[in-house]
Amino acid sequence: MKFTGTEHYVATPDMTVAVNAAITLERPLLVKGEPGTGKTELARQIAASLGLPLIEWHVKSTTKAAQGLYEYDAVSRLRDSQLGDERVHDVRNYIRPGPVWRAFTAPDKVVLLIDEIDKADIEFPNDLLQELDRMEFFVYETGETVRAVSRPIVIITSNNEKELPDAFLRRCFFHYIRFPDTETLARIVDVHFPGIKPGLIRAALTEFFEIRETPGLRKKPSTSEVLDWLRLLLAEDLAPEDLRRDAASALPRLHGALLKNEQDVHLFERLAFMTRGRRP
To answer: Are 132 and 153 in contact (CB under 8 A)?
Structure first.
């Protein structure tokens, strides 16, 4: 069972090594990187490449680790008891399996995505340590232990918003998705926009990397944002020369796809003002 990428996803050599190492070690793969670099999509493409079902658990700031295992609906059980419903006599009717439970009890191996684990509170990773390590957990309401039928491939993503506990990190194989270089990004663009004119790609990527490397930029545009920008350029049928910025306006064409806050827009406006001020 080897991951080699897919026709829809450009996997770099170090990425394929990391994925396959995690599969061999049967450890969760912890994937970090800038937002928009394809961390979540990696899990989907691993599942597609290996022909496995995907179970996704998208973590929010209010998510508790126990919700990934199961939830006990005590309110519904109380209501049913007041109504005299026969279901109330079996507590299993009020146990709702979470994504981890579903991954453990799936008849065949699956890919389990725990997306943006750093959004939850600091105790969230620690609360999953034993369950992901032993591949089992105890259901207190029924007195049963749920064990993994087949160990799932666990992909965990993080945007580095919080430091993760050392004990949790020790149990993971780690991979950081570096921002792609020009050549790799051109390959990614070709996957999404086959047949795009080489001249437009060169001009657009030159412009894009100049924007990313602008000193003082608060939020650098990501891979997903450059793809959105290119989609707009193609929709407007713009030529490479249309992307050239003049001194009067340092903002790129259709800049709303790349610059996502007013501070960065003002930065480029100030650069244009300074350029005009230096002209003789």
So the answer is: no
